[in-house]
């Protein structure tokens, strides 16, 4: 059940009840593609840094270790020792990202595995079956994510097929949730709006999928090459046509600024690999912009990454020490940077929810953006 607690313009403060616990929104989902956050981060760490919901990927877990293996071990929650909600991406993004390894047909997509080249077929029914085996809290519908530079006819044909696939996903999930051996018979389904940068295609698609009365709705196919301005324009156009009484999820986005702007446009759920990927390369987020800890100026810097931060890295270690670990290629350096970045994102979401609760979100947003744009302190 989704309940809006406060609104400020289009921005929504809500909570979303699931079989694995309540998610307070707006929320950033911490990305653990293969049932683990890259950078040696454990699920026990996720509790410590305030993670509400984790995201894993259907295609990658199907390839390795195999969704049947995960089902035999009791589902993804037991497998990775995580007792809070999990959203599984459907494998649809891999239709985009593995474009050289796949063929799209009406029945589904034929892949060659990116690991060993073996043939894989995934359509709406297969994606739902895999996600049912994983027993995630929220399953994403199987879709195609067309390129932001694809021509109009291709995008329209792709979106029409995604709509047909969504109807098949809904039917298959209803069937699977009735089966006796289903691990999570209360699994939810989110549909995905597509349409590249064509506002009219996106709006028509939003109206069509809104009729299907799903558990939530995502805006997909953004942050894949279009400008930030185009992304915000599309959100301004599309979100008003998605059901206001269901959660809205902006897939694969983004930077702290993207998230702040997305909240203003009515988005509840976000996910992105930026905090973990950047952390593994020594790039860390602060309220005054990003730092690159490989820079020589931090060699003798005894301060934490950010003064006042309560993450595991900042509570105990200096910039100089973390830089040394990174330079020495010690895994602890990566781990500390990833923990700091995820803590930064999770804490920012807490601040966003608090600002919405108190009715001053736009003021908070402007101050946060101005501080981050000002750049790091000396």
Explain what this protein looks like in three dimensions.
The chain has 15 helices and 16 strands. By secondary structure, it is α/β, with parallel strands linked by helices. The chain folds into 2 domains: 2-272, Queuine tRNA-ribosyltransferase-like (TIM Barrel); 282-374, no CATH class. Strand 1 (2-8) and strand 2 form a beta hairpin. Helix 8 packs across helix 9, helix 13 crosses helix 14 (331-358) and helix 14 (331-358) packs antiparallel against helix 15.
Sketch the major β-sheet. 8 strands, parallel, barrel
Helix content: 40-55%
Total DSSP E strands: 16
Provide the structure class: alpha/beta
Please state the second-level CATH architecture of the largest domain.
Answer: Alpha-Beta Barrel
Strand order of the largest sheet: 4-5-6-10-11-12-13-14
Uncertain regions spanning at least 5 consecutive residues:
none
Average pLDDT confidence is 95
Strand content: 15-25%
Instruction: State the end-to-end CA separation.
Output: 47 Å
The third-level CATH topology of the largest domain is TIM Barrel
Outline, from the CA principal axes?
Answer: globular
Q: Find the CATH superfamily of the largest domain.
A: Queuine tRNA-ribosyltransferase-like
The CATH first-level class of the largest domain comes to: Alpha Beta
Radius of gyration: 20 Å
- Report the total helices: 15
Number of domains: 2
